[in-house]
Amino acid sequence: MTDQEILAEVEPEPLFAAELFGDRIEIARRYAHHLATTGVEWGLLGPRELPRLWTRHILNCAVVAELISPDDVVGDIGSGAGLPGIPLALAQPAARYVLVEPMERRVDWLTMVVDDLGLDNVRIVRARVEDLVDEEVFTVVTARAVKSLAVLIEWCAPVLGPRGRLLALKGASVEDEIVKARKQIRRAKLNQPTVRELGSPPLEVPTRVAELVRH
Ligand SMILES: C[S@@+](CC[C@H](N)C(=O)[O-])C[C@H]1O[C@@H](n2cnc3c(N)ncnc32)[C@H](O)[C@@H]1O
Question: What pLDDT was estimated at residue 85?
Answer without folding.
Answer: 98
